[in-house]
What does this fold into?
Amino acid sequence: DAGVIQSPRHEVTEMGQEVTLRCKLISGHNSLFWYRQTMMRGLELLIYFNNNVPIDDSGMPEDRFSAKMPNASFSTLKIQPSEPRDSAVYFCASSLGTEISTDTQYFGPGTRLTVL
Amino acid sequence: AQSVTQPDIHITVSEGASLELRCNYSYGATPYLFWYVQSPGQGLQLLLKYFSGDTLVQGIKGFEAEFKRSQSSFNLRKPSVHWSDAAEYFCAVAPYSSASKIIFGSGTRLSIRP
It folds into this structure.
C-alpha cells in the first residue's frame, strides 16, 4: 500500500492567500485526522472524521480553517485567508477503525506551510 | 489538568549504548499510552502502545516501554541504539475511552554519537 499521501509537500504563500492542503487516505480506512505541528504548540489535532462525517472540530483554530471529505478516500484542509501564524507542518493521518484512541493512526509525510 | 510530559528535550547517546526516554502523565485513571517516532521530514509512526495487561510492552524496531502506575510513567527503552534511531520521539496519551483523542507530548529529540 502507498500509505497516506499528502500534497503539496511544501507550500510557500503570501499572507491573505487561500491555501488548500490535500490528503489521500489509505484504501479501506474509515477515519481521517488533520494535525498541525509547530515548535511552540507541538502536535495538535485540528479535526477528525469518521466515515466522511466530521466528529470533532474543536481543534480548528478559527473560521479561516475548514476541512472536507468529499469522498471516502480524500480530504482537504483549506485556510482562507492565510496568516503568518499559520506557518506549520500539517499532517494527515488515517486509521482503519473509528475508535480514535485505540486504532493505530498512520501518518502522511506532512505539508510544510510557510506564510510570508 | 490532564497532561503528558517529556522532560528531556534533547538526548545524545553513543551508538550501541542503551537508551531510556522518559514520559510522565497526569490523569485521574490509567490512560491509553503510546510512543511514536518521527524521522526527519517524515510523519509519525507508532512504535508501541499500552492499553492494559502486561506492563512491559514490546514494540517495533527493538523498542520496549514499561508502564509504572505508581510513578505515572511510561518510559521508552532500547538496549542498544543504532544510528538509524536518530529521530524525534513522542509520548502520547488518551483518556480511557475509545472516543477520546490522543494528546501528544512535546517530544524528545534523539541524536546518536558515532
User: Anything to note?
Assistant: Chain A touches chain B at residues 4, 42-43, 45, 48, 56, 91, 93, 99-102, 104-105, 107-110 (CB under 8 Å). The CA atoms of residues 6 and 67 of chain A lie 14 Å apart. The mean pLDDT of chain A is 94. Chain A has no helices and eleven strands.
